[in-house]
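Pasting as-is:
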Amino acid sequence: MPDLLSVFLHLLLLFKLVAPVTFRHHRYDDLVRTLYKVQNECPSVTRVYSIGRSVEGRHLYVLEFSDHPGIHEPLEPEVKYVANMHGNEALGRELMLQLSEFLCEEFQNRNQRVVRLIQDTRIHILPSMNPDGYEVAAAQGPNKLGYLVGRNNANGVDLNRNFPDLNTYIYYNEKSGGPNHHLPLPDNWKSQMQDFNYLHTNCFDITLELSCNKFPPQEELQREWLGNREALIQFLEEVHQGIKGMVLDENHNNLANAVISVSGINHDVTSGDHGDYFRLLLPGTYTVTAKAPGFDPQTETVTVGPAEPTLVNFYLKRSIPQVSSVGRAPSRRHGAGAKVQPQAARKKEMEMRQLRRGPA
């Protein structure tokens, strides 16, 4: 009898692992239950958190996958999936829920590809950026003719055409100190999230349209999932392509907001609070420079391979301040200041000696 019970439990567990996921559209309450179900099934590598509320008060829930949920680990890149910005475009929303369940199940099954992905990457999945618009579209149903019903949020705003103007004065003075004007071509005057993220953050963002049918009937969802599953996994893996590393000072202290430049590419990235940086690059050889205010820049030649990221750490030396010569007054043309007094000169000389001597 115990043996029979053991076989029964084994079959029950096996059935649970291979049981097909239900392919259907998820209203808001169903979506929330699904996210917390995944968290309950994989508590060691998931976390549900909210980034705020919609106009009508619905939480914008994100599901995180990481071997240390809630923590940024230095040198571990982060990647996000955002779906359902237009409430009536429902396929991405459903694919994100399917992906969430898939990652959890495959992690439990010890699928080494998924295990490695979760251990080396911090993944954030926002299935619905516009839950209010979705509820309007879902009430109409997938077979109705209201093509734009539910597209906007409850304030009538198109969320993917509402990011800040790409050429306004508030971006003229950035921490990078470099030119940042963007002159969009006629086909991208849309104030989209991908343009904003690329120009003003360290995020490389693309927008993918997955279906000609904005709100496909549920019998098509399984086919769409099977057609997109591999691409969704590969896209997450691509975050590891390129170079990454730490920017430190001579005493191995982290340097945040250091600028990482690649020769020939007019787009910089900056180091984070922990001093780590990430730069997506295709295979090839590059000249990379790290610089920070008050430090001498450092340049390295880097070869990027097709698989693993190349680790490139920078150790920046503090700049030696230039001291004006003593004993001769500077020219007063163009409003030059008064000459350096001997006492001030001695003080500067002492500071220079201290800098050369290094910290006590």
